[in-house]
Amino acid sequence: MPAIHLVTLWPLAVYFAVVILLVAGMLSLSYLLGQRHRARATGEPYESGIVSTGSARLRFSAQFYLVAMLFVIFDLEAVFIFAWAVAFREVGWTGYAGVLVFIGILVAALIYEWRLGALDWGSKGRKAR
After folding, report:
1. Which domain holds residue 80?
2. Which pTM does this prediction carry?
3. Is residue 50 located within the same domain as residue 91?
4. Tens digit of pLDDT for each residue in 79-123?
5. Residue 65 and residue 60: Cα distance in Å, rounded?
6. Do residues 41 and 51 lie in contact, with contact meaning Cβ atoms separated by under 8 Å?
């Protein structure tokens, strides 16, 4: 019984050995062939060698977060529509009517958000209708 396990596991062991050798080779080649410089901004975090300008503590408008949340919500619809498209032949006309109702609800929600002014990035002087 143990001989059978060894026969089936040797490709996995070879794979791990090749991966380890490949990673070690890439690291050693980058160490040998890579540039060596000591610029002021090279050791700075998250800047990739670019001299940082100003503070990272910036204030974002709350509207930025609102639009981001709306994007996530309305982007999720693509997952449901894709699932419907994959099963299009199996669900038939009932599925077609269901996806039309789903898209209709999404369009109504988008019109509501638009009329509310959630998508308005204009000046503060504009009023929501």
Report:
1. 62-116
2. 0.47
3. no
4. 889 999 999 899 999 999 999 999 999 899 889 988 888 777 766
5. 8
6. yes
